[in-house]
Design goal:
heterotrimer, A alpha/beta (about 450), B mainly alpha (about 300), C mainly alpha (about 280), A: about 450 residues, alpha/beta, D-Maltodextrin-Binding Protein, domain 2, 4-stranded mixed β-sheet, about 45% helix, B: about 300 residues, mainly alpha, 2 domains, two-stranded antiparallel sheet, globular
Chain lengths: ~450, ~300, ~280
C-alpha cells in the first residue's frame, strides 16, 4: 500500500508541475471581447468570413438562396470569401458552445429568436448588431425589438419570419368522416373522439427528439397568458409556473392524450418523421414550421384540400386563436476578427434583391418590413404572412433554453405517454425552474434586465 | 497446464548486484518516459485541471459551491441511479456469456463459425449499433412489426418511447453488443481446462449440469471477476455513445435514460455551466475509483505472477 | 486445446444448436436490416422492413457517398493510422522498459497505468478541450491523435509488458554475453519474436480508434475534419426522413471493419481476451 501511495504522489507532483506550467486556468466564459473593427468594410485585404447556420430544414430553398447570395456578394466584393456550414438541429447549439469555448474562427452565427439569442449574448458570445449597423436599418427588421433587444441594444439581425406554428388540416380527410375543421378546443376533442374510434390519427407529431414539445408549449400555453411578461415573471420568481394562467395548458395537453388525438408512436418518432404521416394522408392534422407550411400544403394536396389554421383555441386570452410570430436570426460573434465585414454582409442580405430572392426561392417571409407583401396572392401564404407581422410573442423564446429542454421537452414526452398528469407536469416545470435558478447563477439578473426592456 | 510463466531473476543482466536496480531505474525511465509523458498529459494534467475548475466559477474560487449544487441536483441523482440500474445488467451479461460459452465449448461442428458470429456485434461501432437498432425499435418499427406478425402483439412495446422501459431497452442493446466479448473470454478459459477432468467426470456418470457446476465454474472465478469488473466499467463510464445516439442526446423519454456521462456533457455543452460539469465529472471519477481499485487488485495478482517479484 | 467431448447425446446436441442458432440470428439481424435497407427505397423499407429488397437500388449509397463519406474516410484513416502508429511505438518502448528492468514500484506503476482504462472519457473531455482551445488545436488531427494515444496506452503497455516478460531469459542472456546493447537486444531479438501480440494489438487499437465517437465529435468541429463516426452520427439527423440513406451510410462505415474482421478474427479475439484469461 505504501508503494501505491508513493507512486501516486509522484504522479501527482509531476502533474501539478505540468499544470503549473500551463497558462491560465481555462477559458474566460464571462468576458466579452471588446469589439474592435479590424478593418473598415472598404479595405481590400482578403477576408474570409465563416458562417454557421441552420434553416434549410424548415425553409427549404434556404441553402440555394444563401449560395446565390454569397456568390453575388463575392462578385461585388472580390476580396471577401464566405464559407458557410449548415448544422444539424441537434448540433446547432452544442457546436456553437464548443466554438465559443475554443474561439474557433467564426464570424456569423445563426440563432433561433428570443432566448436563443439572448443567452449567448449574456454569455458574452455575441457582439450586438446594434453596435455594427445603424438603428434605422435595424428598425426594419421584424421582431428585433420584441425578441432580440436587451438594455437598449439589439443582439442579432432577424433573417426570416417563422409563423409559430400553423396547424395544417386535411379538409378532405375530415369531410370523408363527416367532420369539419375544428373551430375551438372542444370541437377538436370531439374530432379526436370520432377519428380515433375509426383508428385514424387526428393530429401527427413526434416528440422523441424533444423539439415538438416546445412548439406545443407555445401554441397551447400562450393561449392563457396576456403577454410574454407573465412568463418572464415566472422565470424570475415573481410568479409560478403552477399558477393557472401558466399551468392550465398542461391539462389541455393531457386531454389531447386522453382523447387519443395523437399518433400512437408519437414517443418514438422524431419531429420531421411524424409530419410525414400527414403528407401521406394518414393523419388529419399536423403542426409544421411556418416557412415550410406552404410546401407541406402543396405536398399534401394543395389549398383545395388543405387549410391552415391556428391551434384551436381553448381559452379566450388575447393570444388565443392566433399564430405567433418569431424571427430566426443571424448575428456576429464576439470573437470574430471581421465584425464590420460580417455586419456588412448581413445588411446585404436585407437588400431589396435579396429579400425578393428569399421569397422566390423559399416561399416564406423575410424578416424585413420593406418586403412588398402585395405580391403574395396564394391564400395560405397570405394568411401565414399576416400572422407573421402581428407581433404575437412566441412563448418558447421567452423561457430559459435549459428549462425548455429539462422541463418542457421532458414533461411533454411524459404527458403524451400518459405517465404523467397535467398538474404533475406543471409542478415539475416549477421545480425545474427553481433548480435552474441555483445552477445558473446569473439567470435571475439577466431575465430581470430583459423583462425591464420589454 | 495454463500459460502462466514463472519469472525468476528477470531483467537483471548476469552481473546483477544491489546497485543494479538504481541504474535499472534510470534506463527504464528512458524507455518508459515517452509513454509516461503522453499519459501524464492526457490523464494527470486533465484530472488536475478538472479538479481545479470544479472549485471555481467564472475564474474565481468558490469553494464547495459547485459540488453542493451538483450533489443536491435531483437530475444528478437520477443520472447516478440510472448508471446503477445499468449495473444490474452485468449479472445478465455474465449468465448469458457463460451459457453460450459452455454450449459452444461442447460444440465441435460449426464451432468456429458460431464463435465468429457471436463475437461479431462486439466489433461494430456503437454509433452504427445505436442508429440501426434505434430504427428497429420504434413503436411501429421492424422489431414490433415482426412480433405482431407472429401474433405476439402483447410483447410489442414502445421500446425507446416508454419512460418505464427505455433504460432497460438501452441495457438490452448494450448486453447484445457486449456479450460476445464474454463468450470468447469464457470460451478460451474453458477450452484451456484439461479434458481429462471432464472425461473422468463423465465416466463417473456426471450429467451436463453437474459437470459444469462442479468443474467448470470453480475454475472460472478469476475470468468471471475480470469480465464483471470490465463490464461494470462499461456501464458506468462508456455508455455515452448509446444514449447520445438512441435518444438524440436528450436522455429521454422524460429523464429516463439520462446517465452521468450525459449529464456532464449537457452541463458543459448545452447548459454552458462548465464548472458544474467539472464538479460532476470529479464526483463520477471518485465513484469509479472504486472500480479502479477493484480492477487494480485483480490485475496486480496476475501482474505479480507474470512480471515477477 | 481441450474440447469437451459431447457426451450428452443427440437431445442435448439439438438443444445446443437451437440456442446457438437463435443467438446467431439475433447477432446478425441488425446487419441484415442495415444491408437490405440500404438497397431499398423509403416506402419499401417502411412497409416491409424484413423482406429482401424487391428492386435493389444503389440510390441510397450514392446519396450517402455524396454526403461526404470519402472525406470522412480519409480523415478516419489519418487519425487511426497516426494514433495506432504512435501507441505501438510508445507502448513497445514502455513495455520493454517494464519487462527488462526491475525497479522499485514497478508493478505498482504498471498497475496504476492499467487502471487508467477505467477513467470515463467524458471526465477528461472538458479540461483537454479547454487546453486544446488555448493552443488553437481544436479541429486539428494532432490533438485527437495525442489523446487517442494516451487512452490506448494503458492496455497496450500492459499487453506488451506481459508478453515481453515471457521471452526466455536464456535468449537475452546469450545476447548480453555477446555484448549486445539493450537497444540491439530489443530490435534484434524481442521485436521479431513479438509478431503475434503486436499484430493483435494493432488490430485491437485500430478497432478502438476507428469506432471512437465522443472525443472526435467534440474536438473536430470543422466539418472538413470529421471522421466517419462523426459524419454518420449527424446522418441520422440530416436524413431522418430517408432511412435507406442512413442505412447505406452505416453499411459503408462498417464494411472496412467487417473485412478486417473476416481476415483478422483470430487476432481480435486473442488480443481482447489476453487480459482476462491470464487473470487466473
Amino acid at each position: 500500500m505504501r508503494r501505491t501511495i508513493r507512486a501516486t504522489a509522484l504522479l501527482g507532483v509531476a502533474a501539478l508541475a505540468l499544470a503549473a506550467c500551463s497558462s491560465g486556468s481555462g477559458t474566460d466564459t464571462a468576458s466579452s471581447a471588446a469589439p474592435t473593427a479590424s478593418a473598415s468594410p472598404t479595405s481590400t485585404e482578403p477576408v474570409t468570413l465563416t458562417m454557421s447556420w441552420w434553416g434549410d430544414q424548415e425553409a427549404p430553398g434556404a441553402q440555394k438562396w444563401l449560395t446565390a447570395a454569397i456568390t453575388a456578394y463575392q462578385a461585388a466584393h472580390p476580396n471577401i470569401t464566405i464559407k458557410e456550414t449548415l448544422q444539424t438541429t441537434d448540433g446547432l447549439i452544442p457546436n456553437f458552445e464548443a466554438a465559443a469555448a475554443a474561439k474557433t474562427p467564426l464570424d456569423i452565427q445563426y440563432f433561433w429568436g428570443g432566448i436563443y439569442a439572448q443567452q449567448p449574448g449574456w454569455n458574452g458570445n455575441i457582439t450586438p448588431i446594434s453596435d455594427l449597423l445603424p438603428a434605422d436599418e435595424i428598425a426594419h427588421y421584424t421582431n428585433a425589438q420584441m425578441e432580440d433587444s436587451y438594455q437598449g441594444k439589439v443582439w442579432v439581425a432577424p433573417w426570416y419570419v417563422n409563423p409559430s406554428f400553423p396547424v395544417l388540416v386535411n379538409k378532405d380527410l375530415l369531410a370523408k368522416n363527416g367532420l369539419t375543421v375544428p373551430a375551438n378546443w372542444a370541437d377538436f376533442l370531439k374530432t379526436c373522439d370520432t377519428l380515433s374510434a375509426k383508428g385514424i390519427t387526428t393530429i401527427a407529431g413526434g416528440v422523441k427528439d424533444g423539439w415538438f414539445g416546445g412548439w406545443l408549449y407555445s401554441i397551447l400555453g400562450a393561449q392563457s397568458v396576456s403577454s410574454q411578461k407573465q412568463v418572464l415573471d415566472a422565470v424570475v420568481g415573481n410568479a409560478k409556473f403552477t399558477d393557472p394562467a401558466l399551468a392550465d395548458w398542461w391539462t389541455r395537453l393531457q386531454e389531447s392524450q386522453q382523447h387519443k388525438c395523437w399518433n400512437n408512436d408519437i414517443n418514438s418518432q422524431e419531429l420531421y418523421q411524424a409530419q410525414q404521416l400527414f403528407v401521406d394522408g394518414k393523419a388529419a392534422m399536423t403542426v409544421t414550421a411556418g416557412p415550410d407550411a406552404p410546401n407541406f400544403a402543396t405536398k399534401a394536396g394543395g389549398p383545395s384540400k388543405i387549410e391552415v389554421i391556428a391551434m384551436p383555441a381553448w381559452s379566450d386570452g388575447p393570444l388565443a386563436g392566433k399564430i405567433a410570430s418569431s424571427s430566426q436570426t443571424l448575428g456576429v460573434v464576439s470573437w470574430s476578427q471581421h465584425k464590420a465585414e460580417a455586419a456588412a454582409f448581413l445588411m446585404f442580405l436585407h437588400s431589396a434583391d435579396q429579400l425578393q430572392a428569399w421569397y422566390d426561392m423559399t416561399g416564406s417571409l423575410p424578416a424585413d418590413d420593406r418586403f412588398d407583401l402585395t405580391q403574395v396572392t396564394d391564400p395560405i401564404k397570405k394568411a401565414l404572412f399576416s400572422y407573421g407581422t402581428d407581433n404575437v410573442p412566441y412563448l418558447e423564446n421567452f423561457i430559459p433554453a435549459q428549462l425548455d429542454s429539462d422541463a418542457v421537452f421532458k414533461n411533454v414526452q411524459l404527458v403524451l405517454k400518459g405517465t404523467e398528469t397535467g398538474a404533475q407536469a406543471a409542478a415539475d416545470m416549477q421545480a425545474q425552474m427553481e433548480r435552474l435558478r441555483t445552477t445558473d447563477r446569473n439567470m435571475v439578473s439577466n431575465f430581470t434586465n430583459w423583462a425591464s426592456s420589454q | 497446464m495454463t500459460e502462466v510463466t514463472t519469472r525468476t531473476g528477470r531483467g537483471n543482466p548476469p552481473s546483477a548486484g544491489r546497485g543494479r536496480s538504481q541504474r535499472g531505474m534510470w534506463h527504464a525511465a528512458l524507455w518508459i518516459g515517452p509513454a509516461m509523458v503522453v499519459m501524464l498529459f492526457v490523464f494527470a494534467y486533465a484530472l488536475v485541471q478538472l479538479f481545479t475548475q470544479s472549485f471555481k466559477y467564472q475564474g474565481e474560487w468558490t469553494g464547495w459551491d459547485n459540488f453542493r449544487i451538483v450533489l443536491t441536483d435531483p437530475l444528478f441523482h437520477t443520472a447516478l441511479a440510472h448508471n446503477c440500474e445499468l449495473l444490474l445488467c452485468v449479472p445478465v451479461l455474465i449468465a448469458l456469456a457463460l451459457m453460450l460459452a459452455i454450449v459452444l465449448a461442447e460444440t465441435i461442428k460449426g464451432h468456429t463459425w458460431f464463435r465468429g458470429v457471436l463475437f461479431f456485434p462486439y466489433i461494430l461501432p456503437v454509433t452504427v449499433v445505436g442508429v440501426v437498432l434505434g430504427q428497429l425499435l420504434t413503436l411501429n418499427g421492424a422489431f414490433n412489426t415482426a412480433l405482431r406478425d407472429v401474433g405476439l402483439n402483447v410483447l410489442a412495446q414502445d421500446w425507446l418511447g416508454d419512460p418505464a422501459i427505455a433504460l432497460w431497452t438501452m441495457g438490452g442493446v448494450i448486453v447484445w453488443k457486449e456479450v460476445g466479448f464474454g463468450v470468447v473470454l469464457f470460451l478460451a478459459r474453458i477450452l484451456s481446462l484439461p479434458a481429462e477432468t471432464y472425461e473422468a467426470a463423465s465416466l463417473d456418470g456426471a450429467g451436463f449440469w453437474r459437470k459444469h457446476w462442479s468443474i467448470t465454474l470453480p475454475q472460472m472465478t478469476g475470468v468471471i471477476a475480470f469480465y464483471a469488473v470490465t463490464e461494470a466499467i462499461v456501464m458506468v463510464s462508456w455508455v455515452f455513445n448509446y444514449v447520445y445516439i438512441m435518444t438524440n442526446g436528450q436522455g429521454g423519454p422524460g429523464d429516463s435514460t439520462v446517465v452521468t456521462e450525459l449529464y456532464i456533457y449537457r452541463m458543459a455543452f448545452a447548459d454552458h455551466s462548465i464548472e458544474l460539469a467539472a464538479a460532476a465529472a470529479v464526483v463520477l471519477f471518485a465513484l469509479t475509483l472504486v472500480l479502479v481499485v477493484a480492477f487494480f487488485r485483480l490485475q496486480r495478482k496476475s501482474l505479480l505472477a507474470v512480471v515477477g517479484e | 486445446m481441450a474440447k469437451i467431448s459431447s457426451t450428452a447425446g443427440n437431445v442435448g446436441s439439438f438443444g445446443r444448436y437451437v440456442i446457438l442458432v437463435l443467438f446467431s440470428i439475433s447477432a446478425l439481424i441488425p446487419g441484415y436490416i442495415m444491408l437490405t435497407g440500404a438497397l431499398k427505397t423509403q416506402e419499401e423499407f417502411l412497409s416491409s422492413p424484413w423482406s429482401l429488397p424487391p428492386h435493389p437500388t444503389m440510390t441510397a449509397f450514392s446519396t450517402a457517398i455524396s454526403a461526404g463519406l470519402p472525406g470522412w474516410f480519409v480523415n478516419t484513416l489519418v487519425i487511426t493510422a497516426g494514433s495506432v502508429a504512435g501507441v505501438m511505438v510508445l507502448a513497445a518502448l514502455a513495455g520493454w522498459g517494464f519487462a527488462y528492468w526491475r525497479f522499485r514500484g514497478r508493478e505498482t506503476l504498471l498497475g496504476l497505468i492499467v487502471s487508467l482504462m477505467v477513467v470515463p472519457p467524458v471526465v477528461l473531455l472538458i479540461p483537454l478541450f479547454q487546453f486544446g482551445a488555448q493552443l488553437g488545436w481544436i479541429s486539428t488531427f494532432r490533438i485527437l491523435i495525442i489523446i487517442y494515444v494516451g487512452l490506448m496506452l494503458p492496455f497496450s503497455i500492459y499487453l506488451l509488458a506481459n508478453f515481453f516478460s515471457a521471452i526466455p531469459n536464456s535468449l537475452l542472456e546469450a545476447a548480453q554475453i555477446d555484448g549486445a546493447s539493450t537497444v540491439t537486444i530489443f530490435r534484434r531479438i524481442v521485436l521479431p519474436l513479438s509478431g503475434p501480440p503486436i499484430a493483435t494489438l494493432v488490430v485491437v487499437n485500430i478497432l478502438w480508434a476507428w469506432n471512437e465517437l465522443l472525443l472526435a465529435l467534440v474536438f473536430l468541429q470543422d466539418p472538413e475534419k470529421h471522421t466517419l463516426m462523426v459524419g454518420v452520427a449527424s446522418f441520422r439527423g440530416r436524413y431522418s426522413l430517408d432511412v435507406p440513406t442512413v442505412m447505406a451510410g452505416m453499411t459503408l462505415v462498417t464494411v472496412p471493419l467487417v473485412i478486417a474482421y473476416l481476415f483478422g478474427q483470430r487476432y481480435f479475439i486473442q488480443g481482447l481476451t489476453a487480459g482476462g484469461v491470464k487473470g487466473e
